[in-house]
Structure to design on (746 residues):
């Protein structure tokens, strides 16, 4: 595909992704957007939540990402124009397309796909080359091993090979844990980097039974941190895995391990790195999610920068957070391989004197794919790609998932569940991964798997009373909108098919959800029992994998329902800049 | 059993320490019921365990009210990994501690456990709570005849849908 030089040039005057001075004036070569002014003596490159997307993708950023309480109107809870205004991004620019949902379909044709590991490899090598030997480090914030059919059947082994070739030196995890302990450990045997997690401990029972641990005295299952020499200084990288793995996912995958934010253990570890190991900088490689990281930064002292992920927020600039002993910068680096974060540090003895941060969109049309990585990706995909390349449907509308309440992909999944499993109501998880398909783009099984590939895909049908359905909605809604970020799990609201409701995000649990109605307009009765279909249950289920249910529905020629039953009416958040349209 | 854990005992060591204090909630079941008010009383505080509300349970157990104190450190998860066994622990820098008790505000019966702390014992207790739903966990430390408390909300969720 030809590089749309003209379109990219228009955006070249823009320095959206830098807290430093605007980028240097650029020459005619559009790829010069990747010429970053040399700064400092250490460069840390950060990717996160790539969700195993080996090839470039379309991914529409959300049009609904509501922040409530203290988070209202603050990054990352800005969408569309409010986001562009906050970060000074021109609406017609490539960066507007990369960072927001603004005129997504129009811009997708102009700027093409983002990400892809062969393209990332080219960009990473170039930026590491610019920094010089022993001056750079590449870290991954987790959710590297999950998100595609290939990663799912290979239990993440494909991504370990890719990570090794890419040169990832340290990572932490989230969905990595859903392959279970044995697969995780097998993968880590092959991984050339280090897997870091300060907040994963043996349960008391497992410790009593002498289960495998990195440190038996503390019960830590994994190495908590690593110290690397960069630019002649010592930099500590601490890993913070997703704190709620056994709650958000079936506990059977990690029966011996207990997670949590572990603020106190983290503080002790930071203090030891500073006091005993005399490191010059402390970086937290976090899969907490941005709201949790912002709160943590205000309470835990001694961390210079939190390189964050999980909530898939592409935030162009670090957010400074004051705490009792200084300021911690908090970042979040987007998802699906769309972005590469570049943290340039000026390190002195015992301190970071200055930083420059860039969150670079990975425009695949501006980057030549690295031949070795392209070859590896081809080799990994080859055994499966034929089976999954059959076109099974061509949707007549844009399909995306990301958004607090719903997205067309999930409306489609709910329609498939209700039709194929003959249920009145369908519930589908509010994951934030899953790529975007343009209107008229043929869908293959590989595309369906990219929306559904998890290790607990079994569908179910069960009877639930109206009261039970409301309780489930209230419970999940609180995971999203609890005023205290430490009580949020990340992810978005469960998607409801065949059911509409009103939601007041700023209310408290038990009173956010009201006016529940079936598609025919009848109010949901608290005592009546309804047939409810779903998938991704934390309890074991026996039904067909959801991807087969969705594929069967699509093959039957059915498409999107005309009248969508997943309408959510929002209450009490009028004017919130985290809303740019329903979704 | 003696504990030699230093000023910052780890949780596992605290657990060992817990075995050395009398667990009033188990054993010592009284054959003769009687008014069981003060925690210093050796008798099983039957009335306190029968109270539904946290305030009534505290009143029945101690006969007085507690004041919040940052010297009581309550460690509990924000979100329980399993509502059936929620690990909680309490440590305190208060002197002359004579008892430590746990309350779960919206459990059917609020008092979950009460421990007597013999003189000279490190005042640290860890145990698991069974929680019916999201609610406050309250720890009360009785020290020098006064009550001090720490409170933390623990969420019990249906789970799923993360990420």
């Amino acid at each position: 595909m030809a590089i749309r030089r003209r379109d990219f040039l228009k955006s070249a005057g823009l320095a959206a992704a830098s807290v430093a001075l605007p980028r240097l004036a650029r020459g005619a070569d559009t790829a010069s957007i990747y010429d970053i002014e040399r700064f400092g003596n250490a460069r840390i490159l950060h990717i996160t939540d790539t969700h195993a997307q080996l090839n470039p993708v379309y991914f529409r950023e959300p049009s609904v990402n509501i922040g409530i309480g203290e988070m209202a109107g603050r990054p990352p809870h800005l969408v569309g124009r409010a986001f562009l205004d906050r970060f000074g991004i021109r609406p017609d620019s490539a960066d507007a397309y990369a960072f927001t949902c603004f005129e997504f379909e129009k811009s997708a044709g102009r700027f093409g796909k983002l990400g892809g590991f062969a393209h990332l490899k080219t960009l990473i090598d170039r930026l590491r080359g610019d920094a010089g030997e022993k001056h750079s480090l590449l870290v991954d914030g987790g959710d590297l091993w999950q998100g595609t059919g290939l990663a799912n059947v290979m239990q993440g082994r494909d991504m370990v090979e890719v990570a090794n070739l890419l040169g990832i030196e340290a990572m932490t995890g989230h969905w990595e844990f859903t392959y279970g302990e044995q697969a995780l450990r097998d993968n880590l045997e092959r991984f050339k980097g280090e897997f870091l997690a300060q907040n994963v401990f043996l349960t008391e029972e497992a410790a009593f039974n002498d289960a495998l641990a990195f440190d038996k005295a503390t019960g830590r299952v994994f190495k908590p941190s690593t110290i690397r020499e960069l630019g002649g200084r010592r930099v500590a990288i601490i890993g913070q895995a997703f704190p709620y793995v056994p709650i958000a996912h079936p506990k059977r995958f990690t029966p011996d391990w207990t997670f949590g934010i572990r603020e106190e253990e983290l503080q002790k570890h930071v203090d030891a790195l500073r006091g005993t190991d005399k490191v010059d900088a402390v970086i937290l490689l976090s899969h907490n999610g941005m709201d949790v990281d912002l709160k943590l930064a205000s309470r835990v002292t001694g961390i210079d920068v939190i390189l964050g992920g999980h909530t898939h927020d592409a935030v162009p600039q670090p957010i400074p957070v004051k705490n009792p002993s200084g300021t911690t910068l908090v970042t979040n680096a987007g998802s699906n391989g769309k972005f590469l974060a570049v943290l340039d540090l000026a390190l002195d003895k015992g301190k970071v004197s200055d930083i420059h941060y860039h969150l670079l969109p990975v425009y695949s049309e501006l980057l030549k794919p690295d031949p070795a990585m392209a070859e590896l990706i081809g080799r990994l995909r080859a055994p499966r790609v034929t089976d999954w390349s059959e076109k099974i449907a061509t949707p007549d509308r844009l399909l995306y998932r990301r958004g607090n309440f719903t997205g067309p992909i999930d409306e489609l999944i709910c329609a498939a569940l209700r039709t194929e499993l003959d249920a009145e109501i369908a519930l589908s998880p509010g994951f934030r991964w899953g790529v975007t398909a343009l209107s008229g783009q043929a869908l293959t099984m590989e595309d369906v798997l990219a929306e559904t590939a998890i290790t607990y895909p079994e569908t179910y049908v069960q009877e639930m009373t109206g009261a039970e359905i409301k309780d489930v909605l209230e419970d999940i809604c609180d995971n999203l909108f609890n005023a205290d970020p430490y009580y949020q799990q990340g992810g978005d609201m469960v998607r409801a098919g065949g059911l509409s409701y009103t939601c007041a995000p700023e209310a408290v649990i038990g009173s956010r959800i009201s006016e529940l109605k079936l598609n025919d307009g009848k109010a949901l009765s608290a005592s009546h029992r309804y047939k409810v279909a779903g998938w991704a249950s934390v309890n074991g289920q026996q039904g067909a994998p959801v991807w087969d249910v969705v594929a069967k529905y699509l093959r039957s020629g059915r498409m999107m329902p005309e009248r969508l039953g997943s309408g959510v009416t929002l209450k009490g958040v009028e004017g919130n800049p985290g809303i740019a349209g329903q979704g | 059993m003696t504990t030699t854990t230093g000023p910052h005992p780890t949780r596992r060591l605290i657990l060992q320490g817990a075995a050395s204090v009398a667990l009033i909630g188990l054993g010592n079941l009284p054959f003769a019921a009687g008014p069981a008010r003060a925690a210093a009383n050796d008798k099983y505080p039957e009335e306190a365990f029968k109270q539904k509300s946290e305030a009534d349970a505290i009143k029945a157990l101690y006969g007085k009210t507690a004041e919040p104190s940052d010297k009581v450190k309550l460690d509990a998860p924000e979100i329980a990994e399993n509502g059936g066994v929620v690990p909680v622990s309490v440590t305190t820098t208060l002197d002359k501690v004579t008892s430590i008790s746990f309350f779960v505000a919206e459990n059917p019966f609020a008092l979950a456990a009460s421990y007597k702390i013999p003189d000279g014992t490190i005042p640290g207790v860890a145990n698991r709570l069974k929680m019916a739903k999201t609610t406050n966990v309250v720890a009360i430390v009785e020290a020098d005849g006064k009550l001090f408390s720490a409170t933390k909300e623990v969420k019990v969720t249906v789970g799923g849908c993360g990420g």
About this structure: Chain A touches chain B through 46 residues (CB under 8 Å). The two ends of chain A are 31 Å apart (CA to CA). Chain A has 17 helices and 23 strands.
